[in-house]
Structure formats: structure tokens, C-alpha cells
Automatic annotation (TrEMBL):
Annotated ranges, domain Cytidyltransferase-like: 9-128
Cross-referenced InterPro entries: Archaeal_FAD_synthase, Cyt_trans-like, Rossmann-like_a/b/a_fold
Keyword annotations of the record: Nucleotidyltransferase, Transferase
Record bears the keyword Translocase: no
Signal peptide segment: none
PANTHER family according to UniProt: FAD SYNTHASE
Gene Ontology molecular function: nucleotidyltransferase activity
NCBIfam families assigned: cyt_tran_rel (TIGR00125)
The protein's name: Cytidyltransferase-like domain-containing protein
Amino acid sequence: MERKPRTVLTYGTFDLFHVGHLNLLRRMRALGDRLVVGVSTDEFNALKGKKTVVPFKDRFAIVQGVRYVDQVIAENDWSQKASDIQSLGADVLGMGDDWEGKFDHLSGYCEVVYLPRTKDISSTEIKRVLSALDSEHVVELKAALDIVSTIVRRFE
């Protein structure tokens, strides 16, 4: 008897795609034979109080281009998870451990797992660091780079 492929489903915003996202998707894919990823729309993120840097269509395309991902769908609201699990035949709902316990109510539909995040990296932290670079800091950084470039040229 042929075994049914094991489908894993996960969700995320995937803004400012980084190695933590890649690690999570790779580890999610290792839980099964097929990985389906729901990418939060800009409208849904606004409802969650999140402002993304990268627009939905680009985030969708980036996730679609990851070799561990078999299918990408739009995540439009919190309530669609149960119906997605059923319609996609998902065997596993996987989320980052920052969501620990938040989706346990879906364990009646499939196995629910929470995987650890990659230490010391997140889109939120990247945004925080970038926000410190106001226009005055950017001008100062450019001036410093010009000075360094001048010094380097002297030694060439």
C-alpha cells in the first residue's frame, strides 16, 4: 500500500526575508514530503498592527522561490487555518516557537508543532536597527565612507 505524502502547513509574514526564515522553512519541510506556506497579506498584517517593508506580492514571490516550498497561499485572516488544514489535507501545522500554545486548538485537525526560531535574528530586530538610520545618520555614514575610500585609494 502506497503511503500518502505528508503535508506540512505553516504561516508567516516573511518581511525582510532573512536566514531565520530560510532555516524555519527548511526545518518545516523536513517534517514532511510537501510544504505549503501561507504568506500574510498586507491587509491582514494591518489588522494585526504590523507594517511591512516588502509588499505582499514580492514576499509571496520570494517564499515561492525557496526550494523547500511546494506551494504558497495567501493568509487573509486568523480563522482560515482550520479550513486550510482541511482543504489542503495538512498532516502538520508548524509554527515558530514564538507562537507556542497559540494554535493548540487546531490539534483536532492535525499535529501542531512549534519549532525554535534562529537565535539573534528577526525582521522586527532588522527594522529596529534600520529605523536608527535617520537621514542625518545616513549623511554621516556616507561622509565616513568617503573618508575611508580616500584613505584606501592612497594605499593603492
